[in-house]
């Protein structure tokens, strides 16, 4: 079984060592062991846990809820539906965020077009008049 030290893991996930230590303190990392000196020894299971933590954090899930997810895992197969529900909710949250970001991107695209046209015209006067007439908030 391949093992990793905290530096390897920090580098692999672009995380600080203190973040990884925090995850350990919060009992989020499965398969984490310590050697006789107390040094953390990470396994592939540990890496999978960290990958999942980072994924859930990117969805905006707070650490406390991530802890609840890992608690569900420890409870076994009786929580499979709860875990599916958790990821279904996260999926909906991410889809909503994507829709919001697409609206933001459309606005940014419009502003890029606006300023490109203003630069081509040598003034923003004509573009501004057109934009004010066609705006729909």
From TrEMBL:
Question: Which species?
Answer: Lactiplantibacillus paraplantarum
Give the superkingdom in one word. Bacteria
Looking up SMART domains in the UniProt record yields:
HTH_MERR
Q: Do you know which CDD domains this protein is assigned to? A: HTH_YyaN
**Domain HTH merR-type span(s) in chain numbering:** 3-72
Q: Which gene encodes it?
A: merR_2
Query: Per its record, how is this protein called by name?
Result: MerR family transcriptional regulator
Q: Name one Pfam family in it.
A: MerR_1
Q: Keyword Nucleus, does the record have it?
A: no
Q: PROSITE patterns from the entry?
A: HTH_MERR_2
Q: Which GO terms describe its molecular function?
A: DNA binding; DNA-binding transcription factor activity
Enumerate the UniProt keywords alphabetically: DNA-binding
């Amino acid at each position: 079984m391949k093992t990793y030290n905290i530096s390897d893991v920090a580098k692999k996930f672009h995380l600080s060592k203190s973040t990884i230590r925090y995850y350990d303190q919060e009992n989020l990392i499965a398969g984490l062991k310590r050697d006789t000196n107390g040094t953390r020894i990470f396994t592939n299971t540990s890496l999978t846990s960290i990958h999942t933590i980072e994924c859930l954090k990117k969805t905006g899930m707070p650490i406390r809820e991530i802890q609840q997810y890992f608690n569900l895992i420890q409870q076994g197969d009786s929580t499979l539906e709860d875990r599916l529900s958790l990821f279904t909710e996260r999926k909906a949250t991410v889809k909503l965020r994507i829709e919001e970001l697409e609206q933001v991107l459309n606005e940014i695209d419009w502003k890029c077009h606006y300023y490109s046209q203003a630069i081509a015209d040598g003034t923003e006067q004509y573009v501004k008049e057109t934009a004010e007439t066609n705006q729909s908030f």
